[in-house]
Amino acid sequence: MGRLLLSTSAVALLLAGFGIASAQTTSTTTSTWTTDQGTVIRDYSTSRKYTPFIDPSLEPNVGVVLPGTVMVYPLPDSMKVPEPDRYSYSIINNRPVVVERSSRKVIHTWE
Length: 111
Fold this sequence. Notes:
Layout: H1 2-26, H2 35-47, E1 73-74, E2 87-92, E3 95-100, E4 105-109
Antiparallel strand pairs: 1-2, 2-3, 3-4
């Protein structure tokens, strides 16, 4: 009975640790991104005539690391976010995404 309880406790601790580690890897930003910011990024990109990256096999979801073939651009000066030099953006499959510059990891996306 003692071994069963010990084994069950060990499994529970491992699963809890995995859950905490997963939560830490997916929240890489403390900024709150608004719907308006997504519109600003989309409009800014269009006004600069930046070509969106189109690849139906690339799902620009939070946590995805973008390949080097995807162009990323500095955030528009009009966007006021904490640590703006930490972030870039891209338009992937016609969806604006915010990317952490150092890792090229998607941290926010809009539809």
